[in-house]
């Protein structure tokens, strides 16, 4: 029964194709132009229903305005069906031009483009587009639901200059960590305070905004609680970043990102030397003295760069890059953030051993943004001293006290 039903169906399909063809072109070759339904389904599957032209990515399964279901994709031949068609004579012709390896799912515009300008879109280029698209879809869809993350973008003006974080770059960086965005990014935007110098009034307003935004972010029953993971992308003055870190709850795990100066994006690198941190005592003023901690990673901080009262009376500890010269691009891999956590705990442990219970530490950071956030976040409120955070500004005569993380 089944066999005869399928046979009838096949016959009917064939007839329909024949009917559509012009009378003069009813050769068996013209019939073979029809693409097998299984190949077509497979092409839609491996391309996730999106145009495979590099950079287009248009969803061809819905109408772009109404979002109604539609079949707008076109199955384009890389090497044309006919030898005198687009790319028809480039390289050795495929054994079967209707095989999936010779077909791209394209939107109408992109199909027209590659077929009217075949000289601009040679076979190898299109094969590369197809391969890259399918590889991307394969990797993206391999990310399981447990790898979703809520994105928070924190942007605060630096010395009166607005800053902005590209949402697209944030999503790409997340993707490279095998995570995907659970929903639209939450932006904590302090650019409204632009123009104000980083004085006490600016800092008080900024901290107030951070408090309210973080409270909303971590609200009970909120999105973040359901998602269970937060990804933080932050640009701003170092003391504010440390303050932000101090407000971020330990209730959900957090991945921090930074804008890389060399590649100008937010994607962590996976290669490069392992960063080794070193904790040392630069100046010892005895057990009862005030304590300062210098974190000299993106730039060097010498003793004589510290304010006079600190130099005169404080015991000064320093976290540095071991033997390496401090530089703004040392932080490349997310693992090197974990390394910093260990160094920070080592420094705080050393301080507690040498000085007993210390209520506060003067903190002098020359660090990349995520390390500033970590300084605030890793400090345990009931265990560790408060951090009095200083910021370096050559125009303001060096390091100046800005705010306290407690
Ligand atoms: Zn075509
Ligand atoms: Zn397209």
Give a quick set of tags describing it.
single chain, elongated, binds zinc ion, five-stranded parallel beta sheet, 12 helices, alpha/beta, 3 domains, 406 residues
Distance between the termini: 78 Å
Mean pLDDT: 91
Radius of gyration: 30 Å
Count of domain modules: 3
Q: From the helix content, strand content and strand pairing, which structural class follows?
A: alpha/beta
Bound small-molecule species: zinc ion
Task: Give the SSE order as H and E letters.
Answer: HHHEEHHEHEEHHEHEEEHEHEHEE
Content of β-strand: 15-25%
Please work out how many helical segments DSSP would assign: 12
Can you tell me about this structure?
By secondary structure, the chain is an alpha/beta fold. It folds into 3 domains: 25-141, no CATH class; 146-257, Rossmann fold (3-Layer(aba) Sandwich); 278-405. It starts with a helix and ends with a strand. The protein has helices spanning 2-20, 28-31, 37-46, 108-116, 123-141, 167-176, 200-217, 223-227, 238-247, 308-313, 335-355, 369-378, and strands spanning 74-77, 103-106, 148-155, 180-181, 186-189, 230-235, 254-257, 278-283, 291-296, 315-320, 360-366, 386-393, 398-405. Helix content is 35%, strand content 18%. One zinc ion is lined by residues 51, 53, 56, 58, 106-107, 109-110.
